[in-house]
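User: Can you predict the 3D structure of DUF2207 domain-containing protein? Sequence below.
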Amino acid sequence: MNIALIIIVVVAIVLAIVGGLSSALNWLLWVALIVGVIALIAFLFRVIGGRNRV
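Assistant: Sure. Here are the predicted structure tokens for DUF2207 domain-containing protein:
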């Protein structure tokens, strides 16, 4: 996987955990969801793109 995609997924997970633990920082949950959706779309573009590595 692309290193940038891995970083995006890790950031999304960290923001989701922080957002879930703190009700005062509830907006972080929405940021994590948006970043997670962006990471999913990027992953799907890589899969659909058909770049095969041997």
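Residues 46 and 52 are 10 Å apart (CA to CA). The radius of gyration is 13 Å.
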